Amino acid sequence: MTEPLRVLIADDELMARQRLTRLLGAIDGVTIAGEAKDGDEVLTAARAGGCDVVLLDVHMPKLSGTDALALWPKDGPWVIFCTAHAEHAVKAFDGGALDYVLKPVEPDRLAKALARARARLSMSMSMATLPPPATQARIDRIPVQTRQGVVLVPPDEVTHATLEGELVTLHTTAAHYLTDATLQELHERLGDRVERVHRRALLNVNAVARLEPLETGGYLARLPAGGSVEVSRQAARELRRRLGLRKGPGDDD
Predict the structure, then answer these.
(1) Kind of pairing, strands 78-83 and 53-56?
(2) Omega into 104 within 30° of 0, i.e. cis?
(3) pLDDT tens column, 190-200
């Protein structure tokens, strides 16, 4: 028997959560894993595990849905946006969202999005059980598609990556490259070497020379070569925990 798809509902409006609860109750093979009423709650739930899919609203208190997605854990649940705001779709898909469903959510459209999530989840589980190729040689550099061709970049030399307009710039200790790759794709390739510190930035914390506090509760990370990267308020919380620094305003007790 197929395991039920565990779905978390994340919306600050009670009526919206109630409607999604009713719609999910009519779909076979789905169980509700809980609810979240703001961006901080949904990010905490995503990191804790226990759900396969999150139905995520865009406009929520504390941390918007798109900002939460920018800080999503690497192996976190699939995200399906359920929102009345169509203008955020490009940003959502760039951040790795699986689908984007407009309110009022229709039963058939929601069922289709969840079927897509189940297929992706099944594919991920199947790939996880495959043994690694015995003859494949290890590649110590990551390929980055640029307008001048494919550049093989040593991962340990990456300092940060930023999204400006529609293109991403990857910065290393030796050069910088304009690439068609998304921040999400670079994050997957670089793994734990970098962190998503902003919806528009990845950062290698080991490459930071100085952290300057901002009025927003975040930081401006200064790099030795003179560049800087903004660290969002939510990412700054996690960074303070990792570095053992004193808690800032708004940090959890």
Answers:
(1) parallel
(2) yes
(3) 888 898 999 88
